[in-house]
Amino acid sequence: MSPEQIALVRSSWKRIAPSREQAAALFLCRLFELDPSIRALFKGNSAEQVQKMTSVVGSIVNNLDNLEQLLPPARDLGRRLANHGMRSGHYATAAIALLWTLEKDMGPDFTVPLREAWTAAYMTLTAVMKDAACSPA
Q1: How many separate domains does the chain show?
Q2: What confidence tens digit (pLDDT) does each residue in 20-74 have?
Q3: What does the pLDDT read at residue 55?
Q4: Cβ atoms of residues 13 and 61 within 8 Å
């Protein structure tokens, strides 16, 4: 990712700060709408899942320029999700739900460069996660 893309992702993440939990809940609703089978991967309290999700995304956003720090937790997350049943195709569905959610939250401020920056961040992260899911710990 370019420094400009990192800056775009970070500034947009700050912009949605007041509605992060609402955005995460919207994301989950859209995700389950796109692929109801994914619901089985999310066990437990949905409010707790939303809080975990916003925490993970915040950590990722904060470390986009420090991949060495980001890679170990991303690998661990990829392995854990695979153990819970996450499959390669689920990542594409999640990308669609993520971009849809960001567009709904930001409206016209969700520009093409911003969409490309979030896509680059997501693709970078999921490549690591998918690779870890296929590799022994």
Answers
A1: 1
A2: 888 888 888 999 999 998 888 777 666 777 777 777 788 888 888 888 888 888 8
A3: 79
A4: yes
* 87 SS3 class: coil
- Tokens at 34, concatenated: 């796109």
The domain that contains 40 carries what CATH number? 1.10.490.10
Place of tokens 């975990």: 52
Domain range for 117: 3-133
Structure tokens at 30: 């859209």
Cβ–Cβ under 8 Å, residues 30 and 100: yes
Report d(CA 59, CA 57) in Å as an integer.
5
Beta strands in 1-137 (DSSP E): none
Burial zone of 113 (CB within 10 Å; 0-12 exposed, 13-18 middle, 19+ buried): exposed
State mean pLDDT over 94-104. Answer: 93
The pLDDT of residue 82: 81
